[in-house]
């Protein structure tokens, strides 16, 4: 993932959290908002509710890999925040990818 396509600024996070739309899946919560750019910016978040640092890092790796496997299908021009839920670490990457794909498809965030 390119550095410019990563959501880093605290102000941008606040805008997405406060004005974005959210969708809950089995393994994650996705919050998204149009950003007015010609590319999408993504952030992966794991709270301490997920577990210790090993589990939090694994959950972020799972979400990052799931997005990478389908990244070319996601529409550009959105800020996306993927927030891991407790159940994500008990499952394989393919299950996480299917869940992510289903949520993004239901919110019409995928290119056809």
UniProtKB/TrEMBL annotation:
Instruction: Name the Pfam families for this protein.
Output: Ribonuclease_P (PF00825)
Q: How does it assemble?
A: Consists of a catalytic RNA component (M1 or rnpB) and a protein subunit.
The cross-references to InterPro entries, in alphabetical order and at most eight, read: Ribosomal_Su5_D2-typ_SF, Ribsml_uS5_D2-typ_fold_subgr, RNase_P
One GO cellular-component annotation of the UniProt record comes to: ribonuclease P complex
GO terms under biological process:
tRNA 5'-leader removal
UniProt name for this protein: Ribonuclease P protein component
Task: Kindly give the Gene3D superfamilies that the UniProt entry links to this protein.
Answer: 3.30.230.10
Q: Which GO terms describe its molecular function?
A: 3'-tRNA processing endoribonuclease activity; ribonuclease P activity; tRNA binding
Provide the family line: Belongs to the RnpA family.
- The EC number(s) this enzyme carries: 3.1.26.5
As for what it does, the entry says:
RNaseP catalyzes the removal of the 5'-leader sequence from pre-tRNA to produce the mature 5'-terminus. It can also cleave other RNA substrates such as 4.5S RNA. The protein component plays an auxiliary but essential role in vivo by binding to the 5'-leader sequence and broadening the substrate specificity of the ribozyme.
Taxonomy of origin reads: Bacteria, Bacillati, Bacillota, Clostridia, Peptostreptococcales
Q: Which gene encodes it?
A: rnpA
Keyword list (alphabetical) reads: Endonuclease, Hydrolase, Nuclease, RNA-binding, tRNA processing
Q: Does the keyword Transmembrane helix apply?
A: no
Per UniProt, the enzyme's principal EC class comes to hydrolase
Q: Where is the signal peptide?
A: none
Query: What is the catalytic activity of this protein?
Result: Endonucleolytic cleavage of RNA, removing 5'-extranucleotides from tRNA precursor
């Amino acid at each position: 993932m390119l550095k410019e396509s990563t959501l880093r600024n605290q102000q941008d996070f606040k805008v997405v959290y406060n004005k974005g739309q959210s969708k809950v899946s089995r393994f994650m919560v996705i919050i998204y908002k149009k950003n007015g750019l010609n590319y999408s910016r993504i952030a992966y978040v794991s709270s301490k509710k997920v577990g210790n640092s090993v589990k939090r890092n694994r959950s972020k790796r799972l979400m990052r890999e799931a997005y990478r496997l389908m990244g070319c299908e996601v529409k550009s021009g959105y800020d996306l925040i993927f927030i891991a839920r407790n159940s994500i670490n008990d499952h394989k990457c393919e299950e996480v990818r299917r869940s992510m794909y289903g949520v993004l498809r239901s919110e019409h965030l995928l290119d056809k």
